[in-house]
Amino acid sequence: MTLRELIRMIVVLTCVTVVCAGSLAAVRLVTREQIDYQQIKFIKEPALKKILTDYENDPVADRIQIETGKDARGRPVYATLFPAKKGGAVVTVVLEASAPGYGGPIGVMVAIDPKNDRLRGIAVTTQSETPGLGTKIIDDPSFGAQFAGKPLSANFQLASAGGDIQAISGATVSSNGVSQAVIRAVGLYQSVKPELKF
Amino acid sequence: MAARIVQEFTKGFWKEIAPLRFALGICPALAVSTKVESALGMGFAVVFVLCLSNGLVSLVRHIVPDKVRIAVFISIIATAVVIVELVMQAYFYPLFLVLGIWIPLIVVNCIVLGRAEAFARKNPIGLSLSDGLGMGLGFTVSLVVIASIREVLGSGTWLGIPVFPADYPGFGFLLRPPGAFVIFGLLLASMNVISRRIEKRNA
Amino acid sequence: MQDYLLMIVAAVFINNIVLIRFMGNCPLVGVTSSMESAFGMGAAVVFVTTLAGTACWIVQRLVLEPLGIEYLQTLVFILIIASLVQFVEIVLQKTAPPLYRTLGIYLPLITTNCMVFGSSILNIKQDHTFMQTLVFSLASAVGFSLVLVFMAGLRERMEAAGKVPAALCGVPITLITAGMMGLSFAGLLGMAK
After folding, report:
1. Could you list the residue range(s) of the whole structural domain that residue C110 is in?
2. Is the ipTM of this complex over 0.95?
3. Within a domain: residue A13?
4. Which of C113, C116, C176 sits opposite B185 (nearest CB)?
5. Which pTM was predicted?
6. Fewer C-beta within 10 Å: chain A N or C terminus?
7. What is the number of domains present in chain C?
8. Residues of C with CB under 8 A from a CB of A
9. Using one digit for the tens of pLDDT, what is the confidence trace for C33-86?
10. A80 lies in which domain range?
11. Neighbouring residues of A94: CB distance < 8 A, sequence distance ≥ 6
Protein backbone atom coordinates (compact mmCIF):
# COMPACT_ATOMS: atom_id res chain seq x y z
CA MET A 1 0.00 0.00 0.00
CA THR A 2 1.49 3.35 -0.96
CA LEU A 3 1.41 6.35 1.32
CA ARG A 4 -0.88 8.11 -1.13
CA GLU A 5 -3.47 5.37 -0.90
CA LEU A 6 -3.27 5.37 2.87
CA ILE A 7 -3.80 9.12 3.06
CA ARG A 8 -6.70 8.91 0.65
CA MET A 9 -8.32 6.20 2.76
CA ILE A 10 -7.98 8.19 5.95
CA VAL A 11 -9.26 11.38 4.33
CA VAL A 12 -12.31 9.64 2.85
CA LEU A 13 -13.17 7.86 6.09
CA THR A 14 -12.80 11.02 8.15
CA CYS A 15 -14.92 13.04 5.74
CA VAL A 16 -17.65 10.41 5.66
CA THR A 17 -17.88 10.11 9.44
CA VAL A 18 -17.82 13.88 9.94
CA VAL A 19 -20.58 14.39 7.36
CA CYS A 20 -22.62 11.55 8.90
CA ALA A 21 -22.28 12.82 12.46
CA GLY A 22 -22.96 16.39 11.31
CA SER A 23 -26.14 15.54 9.46
CA LEU A 24 -27.34 13.46 12.40
CA ALA A 25 -26.73 16.33 14.77
CA ALA A 26 -28.79 18.54 12.46
CA VAL A 27 -31.69 16.06 12.33
CA ARG A 28 -31.49 15.68 16.09
CA LEU A 29 -31.67 19.43 16.53
CA VAL A 30 -34.76 19.65 14.34
CA THR A 31 -36.62 16.73 15.92
CA ARG A 32 -35.58 17.20 19.52
CA GLU A 33 -38.47 19.29 20.74
CA GLN A 34 -41.01 17.12 18.99
CA ILE A 35 -39.48 13.95 20.52
CA ASP A 36 -39.64 15.39 24.04
CA TYR A 37 -43.23 16.39 23.39
CA GLN A 38 -44.17 12.93 22.09
CA GLN A 39 -42.57 11.14 25.01
CA ILE A 40 -44.26 13.29 27.62
CA LYS A 41 -47.55 13.22 25.79
CA PHE A 42 -47.52 9.43 25.44
CA ILE A 43 -46.76 8.79 29.09
CA LYS A 44 -48.70 11.63 30.73
CA GLU A 45 -51.66 12.23 28.46
CA PRO A 46 -53.85 9.31 29.66
CA ALA A 47 -53.50 10.48 33.27
CA LEU A 48 -54.04 14.10 32.27
CA LYS A 49 -57.24 13.15 30.43
CA LYS A 50 -58.45 11.37 33.53
CA ILE A 51 -57.80 14.24 35.89
CA LEU A 52 -58.75 17.23 33.73
CA THR A 53 -62.26 17.69 32.45
CA ASP A 54 -62.96 21.15 31.17
CA TYR A 55 -60.13 22.72 29.15
CA GLU A 56 -59.36 23.98 25.67
CA ASN A 57 -55.56 23.91 25.24
CA ASP A 58 -52.94 21.16 24.91
CA PRO A 59 -51.43 21.02 28.43
CA VAL A 60 -48.45 18.98 27.17
CA ALA A 61 -47.50 21.56 24.54
CA ASP A 62 -47.97 24.42 27.05
CA ARG A 63 -46.00 22.66 29.82
CA ILE A 64 -43.89 24.84 32.10
CA GLN A 65 -40.52 23.64 33.36
CA ILE A 66 -39.00 25.20 36.45
CA GLU A 67 -35.58 24.38 37.78
CA THR A 68 -35.86 23.17 41.35
CA GLY A 69 -32.31 22.16 42.14
CA LYS A 70 -29.38 20.08 40.96
CA ASP A 71 -28.82 16.34 41.05
CA ALA A 72 -25.71 14.53 42.32
CA ARG A 73 -23.87 15.07 39.02
CA GLY A 74 -24.64 18.77 39.00
CA ARG A 75 -27.28 18.60 36.27
CA PRO A 76 -30.40 20.71 36.85
CA VAL A 77 -33.60 19.00 37.98
CA TYR A 78 -36.85 20.34 36.59
CA ALA A 79 -40.39 20.28 37.87
CA THR A 80 -42.88 20.01 35.02
CA LEU A 81 -46.27 21.70 35.36
CA PHE A 82 -49.15 21.23 32.96
CA PRO A 83 -51.52 24.20 32.82
CA ALA A 84 -55.09 23.65 31.61
CA LYS A 85 -56.62 26.78 30.14
CA LYS A 86 -60.12 27.89 29.40
CA GLY A 87 -60.96 31.14 27.68
CA GLY A 88 -57.25 32.06 27.78
CA ALA A 89 -57.00 31.83 31.56
CA VAL A 90 -55.31 29.04 33.49
CA VAL A 91 -58.02 27.19 35.41
CA THR A 92 -56.03 24.17 36.64
CA VAL A 93 -52.35 23.31 37.11
CA VAL A 94 -51.33 19.66 37.08
CA LEU A 95 -48.07 18.32 38.45
CA GLU A 96 -46.72 14.94 39.40
CA ALA A 97 -44.78 13.58 42.36
CA SER A 98 -44.00 10.13 43.65
CA ALA A 99 -43.44 8.41 46.99
CA PRO A 100 -42.54 4.84 47.97
CA GLY A 101 -45.46 2.44 48.25
CA TYR A 102 -45.52 -1.27 49.07
CA GLY A 103 -44.14 -2.67 45.81
CA GLY A 104 -42.23 0.34 44.49
CA PRO A 105 -42.70 4.05 43.89
CA ILE A 106 -46.24 5.34 43.41
CA GLY A 107 -46.58 8.26 40.99
CA VAL A 108 -49.50 10.60 41.57
CA MET A 109 -50.75 13.47 39.44
CA VAL A 110 -52.34 16.30 41.32
CA ALA A 111 -54.67 18.90 39.82
CA ILE A 112 -54.65 22.25 41.61
CA ASP A 113 -56.98 25.19 41.24
CA PRO A 114 -54.47 28.07 41.36
CA LYS A 115 -57.04 30.77 42.11
CA ASN A 116 -58.50 29.27 45.27
CA ASP A 117 -55.48 27.10 46.24
CA ARG A 118 -57.60 23.98 46.32
CA LEU A 119 -57.03 20.42 45.07
CA ARG A 120 -59.31 19.57 42.17
CA GLY A 121 -58.41 15.89 42.21
CA ILE A 122 -55.66 13.28 42.00
CA ALA A 123 -54.81 10.35 39.69
CA VAL A 124 -52.31 7.53 40.18
CA THR A 125 -49.99 7.28 37.16
CA THR A 126 -47.45 4.58 38.00
CA GLN A 127 -47.56 1.89 40.65
CA SER A 128 -46.48 -1.70 41.24
CA GLU A 129 -48.69 -2.56 44.22
CA THR A 130 -50.16 -5.95 45.10
CA PRO A 131 -53.04 -6.67 42.69
CA GLY A 132 -56.38 -6.69 44.50
CA LEU A 133 -55.04 -5.04 47.64
CA GLY A 134 -52.67 -2.15 47.01
CA THR A 135 -54.21 -1.55 43.59
CA LYS A 136 -57.37 -0.38 45.37
CA ILE A 137 -55.71 3.04 45.41
CA ILE A 138 -56.77 3.07 41.74
CA ASP A 139 -59.76 0.72 41.73
CA ASP A 140 -61.55 2.26 44.70
CA PRO A 141 -62.59 5.73 43.50
CA SER A 142 -63.77 6.82 46.94
CA PHE A 143 -60.17 6.80 48.19
CA GLY A 144 -58.91 9.28 45.60
CA ALA A 145 -62.09 11.33 45.92
CA GLN A 146 -61.15 12.23 49.51
CA PHE A 147 -58.48 14.58 48.18
CA ALA A 148 -60.75 16.50 45.82
CA GLY A 149 -61.89 19.91 46.98
CA LYS A 150 -59.56 20.12 49.97
CA PRO A 151 -57.60 23.35 50.43
CA LEU A 152 -53.83 23.09 49.96
CA SER A 153 -53.40 23.87 53.63
CA ALA A 154 -55.24 20.66 54.64
CA ASN A 155 -53.38 17.84 56.36
CA PHE A 156 -52.97 15.14 53.74
CA GLN A 157 -51.48 12.61 56.14
CA LEU A 158 -53.44 9.43 56.89
CA ALA A 159 -55.91 9.60 59.76
CA SER A 160 -53.68 7.23 61.75
CA ALA A 161 -50.95 9.88 61.58
CA GLY A 162 -53.36 12.64 62.59
CA GLY A 163 -54.37 13.73 59.09
CA ASP A 164 -57.62 13.92 57.10
CA ILE A 165 -57.26 10.91 54.80
CA GLN A 166 -58.90 7.55 55.57
CA ALA A 167 -56.60 4.69 54.52
CA ILE A 168 -58.00 1.72 52.57
CA SER A 169 -58.21 -1.17 55.00
CA GLY A 170 -55.64 -3.83 54.12
CA ALA A 171 -53.66 -1.39 51.99
CA THR A 172 -52.28 1.07 54.51
CA VAL A 173 -48.78 1.20 53.03
CA SER A 174 -50.11 1.89 49.53
CA SER A 175 -52.55 4.50 50.87
CA ASN A 176 -49.72 6.18 52.73
CA GLY A 177 -47.66 6.19 49.50
CA VAL A 178 -50.40 8.12 47.74
CA SER A 179 -50.72 10.51 50.70
CA GLN A 180 -46.99 11.20 50.78
CA ALA A 181 -46.89 11.74 47.01
CA VAL A 182 -49.74 14.27 47.27
CA ILE A 183 -47.92 16.04 50.10
CA ARG A 184 -44.78 16.22 47.97
CA ALA A 185 -46.69 17.50 44.95
CA VAL A 186 -48.40 20.19 47.00
CA GLY A 187 -45.08 21.16 48.58
CA LEU A 188 -43.48 21.33 45.14
CA TYR A 189 -46.32 23.50 43.85
CA GLN A 190 -46.01 25.91 46.74
CA SER A 191 -42.26 26.19 46.31
CA VAL A 192 -42.53 27.08 42.60
CA LYS A 193 -45.71 29.13 42.92
CA PRO A 194 -43.92 32.49 43.21
CA GLU A 195 -42.37 31.86 39.78
CA LEU A 196 -45.68 31.16 38.06
CA LYS A 197 -47.23 34.05 36.23
CA PHE A 198 -50.70 33.51 34.87
CA MET B 1 -32.45 3.70 -19.82
CA ALA B 2 -36.06 4.07 -18.72
CA ALA B 3 -36.63 0.38 -19.45
CA ARG B 4 -33.62 -0.54 -17.27
CA ILE B 5 -34.97 1.54 -14.42
CA VAL B 6 -38.35 -0.17 -14.60
CA GLN B 7 -36.65 -3.56 -14.81
CA GLU B 8 -34.49 -2.91 -11.74
CA PHE B 9 -37.57 -1.73 -9.91
CA THR B 10 -39.81 -4.68 -10.72
CA LYS B 11 -37.27 -7.42 -10.04
CA GLY B 12 -37.65 -6.67 -6.33
CA PHE B 13 -41.24 -7.92 -6.39
CA TRP B 14 -40.90 -11.45 -7.68
CA LYS B 15 -37.61 -12.49 -9.25
CA GLU B 16 -35.44 -11.31 -6.36
CA ILE B 17 -38.00 -10.62 -3.66
CA ALA B 18 -36.50 -10.68 -0.19
CA PRO B 19 -36.77 -12.42 2.20
CA LEU B 20 -39.05 -14.86 0.37
CA ARG B 21 -36.75 -15.62 -2.56
CA PHE B 22 -33.43 -14.73 -1.02
CA ALA B 23 -32.92 -15.68 2.60
CA LEU B 24 -31.96 -12.09 3.49
CA GLY B 25 -33.54 -10.03 6.25
CA ILE B 26 -35.33 -12.97 7.85
CA CYS B 27 -34.93 -11.65 11.37
CA PRO B 28 -37.14 -8.54 11.12
CA ALA B 29 -39.58 -10.44 8.91
CA LEU B 30 -40.17 -12.85 11.77
CA ALA B 31 -40.01 -10.34 14.58
CA VAL B 32 -42.37 -7.57 13.51
CA SER B 33 -44.96 -9.64 11.64
CA THR B 34 -47.44 -10.22 14.45
CA LYS B 35 -49.46 -7.25 13.22
CA VAL B 36 -49.95 -5.80 9.73
CA GLU B 37 -49.55 -2.30 11.15
CA SER B 38 -46.06 -2.92 12.52
CA ALA B 39 -45.11 -4.79 9.33
CA LEU B 40 -46.07 -1.73 7.27
CA GLY B 41 -44.13 0.58 9.58
CA MET B 42 -41.05 -1.60 9.41
CA GLY B 43 -41.39 -1.96 5.63
CA PHE B 44 -41.50 1.77 5.03
CA ALA B 45 -38.56 2.34 7.37
CA VAL B 46 -36.55 -0.15 5.31
CA VAL B 47 -37.67 1.47 2.02
CA PHE B 48 -36.42 4.83 3.24
CA VAL B 49 -33.10 3.46 4.48
CA LEU B 50 -32.55 1.46 1.29
CA CYS B 51 -33.24 4.41 -1.02
CA LEU B 52 -31.07 6.79 0.99
CA SER B 53 -28.18 4.36 1.37
CA ASN B 54 -28.32 3.16 -2.23
CA GLY B 55 -28.41 6.73 -3.48
CA LEU B 56 -25.52 7.94 -1.33
CA VAL B 57 -23.39 4.85 -1.96
CA SER B 58 -23.90 5.31 -5.68
CA LEU B 59 -22.93 8.98 -5.41
CA VAL B 60 -19.63 8.29 -3.63
CA ARG B 61 -18.81 5.13 -5.56
CA HIS B 62 -15.92 6.69 -7.50
CA ILE B 63 -14.13 8.35 -4.60
CA VAL B 64 -14.20 5.58 -2.00
CA PRO B 65 -11.12 3.33 -2.01
CA ASP B 66 -11.98 -0.34 -2.24
CA LYS B 67 -10.37 -1.32 1.06
CA VAL B 68 -12.52 0.93 3.24
CA ARG B 69 -15.73 0.68 1.24
CA ILE B 70 -17.52 -1.53 3.80
CA ALA B 71 -16.75 0.93 6.60
CA VAL B 72 -18.05 3.81 4.48
CA PHE B 73 -21.19 1.90 3.48
CA ILE B 74 -21.91 0.97 7.09
CA SER B 75 -21.53 4.60 8.19
CA ILE B 76 -23.92 5.74 5.48
CA ILE B 77 -26.47 3.06 6.37
CA ALA B 78 -26.20 3.77 10.09
CA THR B 79 -26.79 7.46 9.42
CA ALA B 80 -29.91 6.69 7.41
CA VAL B 81 -31.14 4.42 10.19
CA VAL B 82 -30.61 7.02 12.91
CA ILE B 83 -32.52 9.56 10.82
CA VAL B 84 -35.43 7.09 10.61
CA GLU B 85 -35.13 6.47 14.35
CA LEU B 86 -35.33 10.17 15.20
CA VAL B 87 -38.12 10.98 12.77
CA MET B 88 -40.19 8.01 13.88
CA GLN B 89 -39.69 8.97 17.52
CA ALA B 90 -40.81 12.51 16.76
CA TYR B 91 -43.87 11.81 14.62
CA PHE B 92 -44.88 8.14 15.02
CA TYR B 93 -44.10 7.51 18.67
CA PRO B 94 -46.50 4.58 19.30
CA LEU B 95 -45.12 2.78 16.22
CA PHE B 96 -41.59 3.47 17.45
CA LEU B 97 -42.44 1.76 20.74
CA VAL B 98 -43.87 -1.28 18.95
CA LEU B 99 -40.90 -1.74 16.62
CA GLY B 100 -38.45 -0.97 19.43
CA ILE B 101 -35.04 -2.54 18.95
CA TRP B 102 -35.82 -3.50 15.35
CA ILE B 103 -35.39 0.06 14.13
CA PRO B 104 -31.67 0.26 15.06
CA LEU B 105 -31.31 -3.33 13.87
CA ILE B 106 -32.05 -2.22 10.29
CA VAL B 107 -28.34 -1.33 10.28
CA VAL B 108 -27.43 -5.00 10.21
CA ASN B 109 -30.27 -6.01 7.91
CA CYS B 110 -28.42 -7.98 5.24
CA ILE B 111 -30.64 -6.59 2.48
CA VAL B 112 -29.41 -3.03 2.96
CA LEU B 113 -25.69 -3.77 3.00
CA GLY B 114 -26.24 -6.44 0.36
CA ARG B 115 -27.78 -3.97 -2.11
CA ALA B 116 -25.03 -1.40 -1.44
CA GLU B 117 -22.33 -3.98 -2.05
CA ALA B 118 -23.91 -5.88 -4.93
CA PHE B 119 -25.67 -3.09 -6.81
CA ALA B 120 -25.30 0.52 -5.78
CA ARG B 121 -21.51 0.65 -5.82
CA LYS B 122 -21.46 -0.44 -9.47
CA ASN B 123 -24.41 1.49 -10.89
CA PRO B 124 -25.42 5.12 -11.49
CA ILE B 125 -27.72 6.85 -9.08
CA GLY B 126 -30.98 6.51 -11.04
CA LEU B 127 -30.69 2.76 -11.30
CA SER B 128 -29.57 2.46 -7.68
CA LEU B 129 -32.56 4.44 -6.44
CA SER B 130 -35.02 2.35 -8.40
CA ASP B 131 -33.30 -0.82 -7.22
CA GLY B 132 -33.55 0.35 -3.61
CA LEU B 133 -37.20 1.35 -4.00
CA GLY B 134 -38.13 -1.93 -5.67
CA MET B 135 -36.26 -4.08 -3.17
CA GLY B 136 -37.65 -2.13 -0.22
CA LEU B 137 -41.24 -2.33 -1.47
CA GLY B 138 -40.79 -6.02 -2.22
CA PHE B 139 -39.61 -6.51 1.36
CA THR B 140 -42.64 -4.54 2.60
CA VAL B 141 -44.99 -6.73 0.55
CA SER B 142 -43.40 -9.91 1.96
CA LEU B 143 -43.72 -8.59 5.50
CA VAL B 144 -47.36 -7.64 4.97
CA VAL B 145 -48.14 -11.07 3.53
CA ILE B 146 -46.62 -12.87 6.53
CA ALA B 147 -48.18 -10.43 8.97
CA SER B 148 -51.60 -10.79 7.32
CA ILE B 149 -51.52 -14.57 7.74
CA ARG B 150 -50.41 -14.27 11.34
CA GLU B 151 -52.78 -11.48 12.31
CA VAL B 152 -55.88 -12.87 10.57
CA LEU B 153 -55.48 -16.44 11.83
CA GLY B 154 -53.81 -15.52 15.10
CA SER B 155 -56.02 -12.77 16.43
CA GLY B 156 -58.85 -12.67 13.89
CA THR B 157 -58.20 -9.11 12.74
CA TRP B 158 -56.56 -7.39 9.77
CA LEU B 159 -54.92 -4.02 10.37
CA GLY B 160 -56.92 -4.01 13.60
CA ILE B 161 -60.27 -4.55 11.83
CA PRO B 162 -62.08 -7.73 12.93
CA VAL B 163 -62.53 -10.20 10.06
CA PHE B 164 -63.97 -13.12 11.99
CA PRO B 165 -67.04 -13.21 14.30
CA ALA B 166 -66.32 -11.88 17.76
CA ASP B 167 -66.24 -15.37 19.30
CA TYR B 168 -63.23 -16.43 17.16
CA PRO B 169 -60.88 -17.91 19.77
CA GLY B 170 -57.64 -16.96 17.98
CA PHE B 171 -54.80 -19.28 17.02
CA GLY B 172 -52.30 -18.08 19.61
CA PHE B 173 -49.47 -20.29 18.40
CA LEU B 174 -49.04 -18.14 15.29
CA LEU B 175 -48.43 -15.05 17.39
CA ARG B 176 -45.69 -16.76 19.40
CA PRO B 177 -42.10 -16.93 18.12
CA PRO B 178 -42.20 -20.62 17.10
CA GLY B 179 -45.33 -19.95 15.05
CA ALA B 180 -43.46 -17.28 13.10
CA PHE B 181 -40.79 -19.77 12.04
CA VAL B 182 -43.33 -22.38 10.99
CA ILE B 183 -45.51 -19.95 8.99
CA PHE B 184 -42.49 -18.47 7.27
CA GLY B 185 -41.16 -21.95 6.40
CA LEU B 186 -44.50 -23.00 4.94
CA LEU B 187 -44.75 -19.77 2.96
CA LEU B 188 -41.30 -20.36 1.45
CA ALA B 189 -42.29 -23.92 0.59
CA SER B 190 -45.41 -22.72 -1.24
CA MET B 191 -43.32 -20.11 -3.08
CA ASN B 192 -41.08 -22.98 -4.19
CA VAL B 193 -44.05 -25.00 -5.46
CA ILE B 194 -45.55 -22.06 -7.33
CA SER B 195 -42.36 -20.99 -9.05
CA ARG B 196 -41.62 -24.61 -10.03
CA ARG B 197 -45.06 -24.83 -11.65
CA ILE B 198 -44.40 -21.61 -13.57
CA GLU B 199 -41.02 -22.84 -14.74
CA LYS B 200 -42.54 -26.11 -15.93
CA ARG B 201 -45.20 -24.32 -17.91
CA ASN B 202 -42.64 -22.03 -19.53
CA ALA B 203 -40.27 -24.86 -20.37
CA MET C 1 -24.40 -15.48 42.19
CA GLN C 2 -27.90 -16.91 41.85
CA ASP C 3 -28.92 -13.87 39.84
CA TYR C 4 -26.16 -14.53 37.32
CA LEU C 5 -27.14 -18.19 37.11
CA LEU C 6 -30.75 -17.26 36.37
CA MET C 7 -29.58 -14.71 33.84
CA ILE C 8 -27.51 -17.36 32.06
CA VAL C 9 -30.38 -19.87 31.96
CA ALA C 10 -32.73 -17.15 30.72
CA ALA C 11 -30.37 -15.92 28.01
CA VAL C 12 -29.33 -19.37 26.79
CA PHE C 13 -32.70 -21.12 26.81
CA ILE C 14 -35.79 -19.18 27.80
CA ASN C 15 -35.19 -15.98 25.87
CA ASN C 16 -32.92 -17.64 23.35
CA ILE C 17 -31.61 -14.92 21.10
CA VAL C 18 -32.24 -16.85 17.88
CA LEU C 19 -35.48 -18.70 18.53
CA ILE C 20 -37.33 -16.25 20.76
CA ARG C 21 -35.75 -12.89 20.01
CA PHE C 22 -35.32 -13.63 16.28
CA MET C 23 -31.77 -12.34 15.99
CA GLY C 24 -29.06 -14.04 13.94
CA ASN C 25 -31.37 -15.98 11.66
CA CYS C 26 -29.23 -15.49 8.55
CA PRO C 27 -26.38 -17.72 9.84
CA LEU C 28 -29.00 -20.14 11.17
CA VAL C 29 -30.06 -20.68 7.57
CA GLY C 30 -26.70 -20.06 5.95
CA VAL C 31 -24.03 -22.00 7.84
CA THR C 32 -25.86 -24.95 9.37
CA SER C 33 -25.51 -27.35 6.48
CA SER C 34 -22.51 -28.96 8.17
CA MET C 35 -21.50 -29.49 11.79
CA GLU C 36 -18.01 -28.15 11.19
CA SER C 37 -19.11 -24.76 9.91
CA ALA C 38 -21.69 -24.46 12.70
CA PHE C 39 -18.95 -24.97 15.29
CA GLY C 40 -16.65 -22.49 13.57
CA MET C 41 -19.32 -19.81 13.31
CA GLY C 42 -20.47 -20.45 16.88
CA ALA C 43 -16.98 -20.08 18.33
CA ALA C 44 -16.31 -16.89 16.34
CA VAL C 45 -19.62 -15.39 17.46
CA VAL C 46 -19.06 -16.17 21.15
CA PHE C 47 -15.68 -14.47 20.97
CA VAL C 48 -16.81 -11.35 19.09
CA THR C 49 -20.12 -10.88 20.94
CA THR C 50 -18.48 -10.89 24.35
CA LEU C 51 -15.81 -8.44 23.21
CA ALA C 52 -18.26 -6.19 21.36
CA GLY C 53 -20.85 -6.24 24.14
CA THR C 54 -18.38 -5.04 26.76
CA ALA C 55 -16.71 -2.54 24.41
CA CYS C 56 -20.07 -1.00 23.48
CA TRP C 57 -21.10 -0.84 27.14
CA ILE C 58 -17.89 1.00 28.05
CA VAL C 59 -18.27 3.49 25.21
CA GLN C 60 -21.94 4.09 26.04
CA ARG C 61 -21.24 4.77 29.73
CA LEU C 62 -17.97 6.68 29.38
CA VAL C 63 -18.46 8.58 26.13
CA LEU C 64 -22.03 8.76 24.82
CA GLU C 65 -23.86 9.37 28.10
CA PRO C 66 -21.52 11.99 29.59
CA LEU C 67 -21.57 13.90 26.30
CA GLY C 68 -25.35 13.53 25.96
CA ILE C 69 -25.14 12.10 22.44
CA GLU C 70 -27.01 8.83 23.03
CA TYR C 71 -28.78 9.29 19.71
CA LEU C 72 -25.51 8.40 17.92
CA GLN C 73 -25.63 4.97 19.61
CA THR C 74 -26.53 3.05 16.45
CA LEU C 75 -23.77 4.63 14.37
CA VAL C 76 -21.12 4.29 17.06
CA PHE C 77 -21.96 0.70 18.00
CA ILE C 78 -21.90 -0.61 14.46
CA LEU C 79 -18.56 1.09 13.83
CA ILE C 80 -17.17 -0.43 17.04
CA ILE C 81 -18.34 -3.88 15.99
CA ALA C 82 -17.03 -3.53 12.44
CA SER C 83 -13.60 -2.35 13.54
CA LEU C 84 -13.47 -4.95 16.32
CA VAL C 85 -14.11 -7.71 13.81
CA GLN C 86 -11.33 -6.35 11.58
CA PHE C 87 -9.01 -6.10 14.57
CA VAL C 88 -9.73 -9.64 15.74
CA GLU C 89 -9.12 -10.87 12.22
CA ILE C 90 -5.69 -9.21 12.04
CA VAL C 91 -4.66 -10.34 15.52
CA LEU C 92 -5.71 -13.93 14.90
CA GLN C 93 -3.92 -13.97 11.57
CA LYS C 94 -0.67 -12.83 13.21
CA THR C 95 -0.75 -14.77 16.48
CA ALA C 96 -2.78 -17.92 15.96
CA PRO C 97 -2.74 -19.07 12.32
CA PRO C 98 -4.43 -22.44 13.03
CA LEU C 99 -7.32 -20.73 14.83
CA TYR C 100 -7.48 -18.16 12.04
CA ARG C 101 -7.83 -20.90 9.45
CA THR C 102 -10.84 -22.30 11.35
CA LEU C 103 -12.62 -19.05 12.26
CA GLY C 104 -11.24 -16.69 9.62
CA ILE C 105 -13.88 -17.13 6.94
CA TYR C 106 -16.71 -16.56 9.43
CA LEU C 107 -15.37 -13.33 10.87
CA PRO C 108 -16.43 -10.94 8.06
CA LEU C 109 -19.95 -12.41 8.21
CA ILE C 110 -20.24 -11.44 11.86
CA THR C 111 -20.37 -7.67 11.25
CA THR C 112 -23.84 -8.02 9.79
CA ASN C 113 -24.97 -10.67 12.24
CA CYS C 114 -27.75 -8.85 14.01
CA MET C 115 -27.17 -10.95 17.10
CA VAL C 116 -23.91 -9.15 17.97
CA PHE C 117 -25.39 -5.70 17.47
CA GLY C 118 -28.69 -6.66 19.05
CA SER C 119 -27.23 -8.03 22.25
CA SER C 120 -25.02 -4.93 22.59
CA ILE C 121 -28.15 -2.77 22.44
CA LEU C 122 -30.09 -5.06 24.78
CA ASN C 123 -27.33 -4.58 27.38
CA ILE C 124 -27.95 -0.85 27.33
CA LYS C 125 -31.74 -1.12 27.13
CA GLN C 126 -31.91 -3.43 30.12
CA ASP C 127 -29.57 -1.23 32.14
CA HIS C 128 -27.01 -3.93 32.82
CA THR C 129 -23.97 -3.39 35.01
CA PHE C 130 -20.55 -4.21 33.60
CA MET C 131 -20.56 -7.74 35.02
CA GLN C 132 -24.12 -8.34 33.84
CA THR C 133 -23.11 -7.16 30.38
CA LEU C 134 -20.24 -9.62 30.32
CA VAL C 135 -22.43 -12.50 31.49
CA PHE C 136 -25.38 -11.62 29.27
CA SER C 137 -23.29 -11.23 26.10
CA LEU C 138 -21.49 -14.50 26.71
CA ALA C 139 -24.69 -16.38 27.56
CA SER C 140 -26.59 -15.01 24.54
CA ALA C 141 -23.77 -16.01 22.23
CA VAL C 142 -23.61 -19.46 23.78
CA GLY C 143 -27.36 -19.80 23.26
CA PHE C 144 -26.87 -18.80 19.63
CA SER C 145 -24.06 -21.32 19.09
CA LEU C 146 -26.05 -24.06 20.79
CA VAL C 147 -28.97 -23.59 18.41
CA LEU C 148 -26.59 -23.45 15.46
CA VAL C 149 -24.95 -26.74 16.43
CA PHE C 150 -28.27 -28.46 17.18
CA MET C 151 -29.61 -27.30 13.84
CA ALA C 152 -26.53 -28.53 11.97
CA GLY C 153 -26.86 -31.94 13.63
CA LEU C 154 -30.53 -32.19 12.69
CA ARG C 155 -29.93 -31.05 9.14
CA GLU C 156 -27.14 -33.57 8.62
CA ARG C 157 -29.51 -36.32 9.72
CA MET C 158 -32.35 -35.09 7.56
CA GLU C 159 -29.99 -34.93 4.62
CA ALA C 160 -28.84 -38.50 5.26
CA ALA C 161 -32.39 -39.80 5.62
CA GLY C 162 -33.36 -38.08 2.36
CA LYS C 163 -37.07 -38.05 3.17
CA VAL C 164 -37.70 -34.29 3.09
CA PRO C 165 -40.32 -33.34 0.44
CA ALA C 166 -38.79 -31.44 -2.48
CA ALA C 167 -40.74 -28.25 -1.80
CA LEU C 168 -39.48 -28.08 1.77
CA CYS C 169 -35.81 -28.73 1.01
CA GLY C 170 -33.26 -26.19 2.22
CA VAL C 171 -34.51 -23.02 3.92
CA PRO C 172 -38.18 -23.96 4.56
CA ILE C 173 -37.42 -27.14 6.52
CA THR C 174 -34.70 -25.32 8.47
CA LEU C 175 -37.19 -22.67 9.56
CA ILE C 176 -39.87 -25.18 10.51
CA THR C 177 -37.30 -27.15 12.50
CA ALA C 178 -36.31 -23.91 14.23
CA GLY C 179 -39.96 -23.39 15.13
CA MET C 180 -40.15 -26.85 16.71
CA MET C 181 -36.92 -26.21 18.55
CA GLY C 182 -38.35 -22.92 19.82
CA LEU C 183 -41.40 -24.78 21.13
CA SER C 184 -39.25 -27.17 23.13
CA PHE C 185 -37.20 -24.26 24.50
CA ALA C 186 -40.44 -22.54 25.46
CA GLY C 187 -41.14 -25.58 27.63
CA LEU C 188 -38.57 -24.21 30.04
CA LEU C 189 -40.63 -21.05 30.53
CA GLY C 190 -41.30 -20.28 34.16
CA MET C 191 -37.88 -21.35 35.38
CA ALA C 192 -36.66 -17.77 35.25
CA LYS C 193 -37.93 -14.45 34.01
Report:
1. 8-186
2. no
3. no
4. C176
5. 0.82
6. N
7. 1
8. 71-72, 75, 79
9. 888 888 888 888 999 999 999 999 999 999 998 888 888 899 999 999 988 988
10. 48-195
11. A48, A51, A52, A59, A81, A82, A83, A84, A109, A110, A111, A112
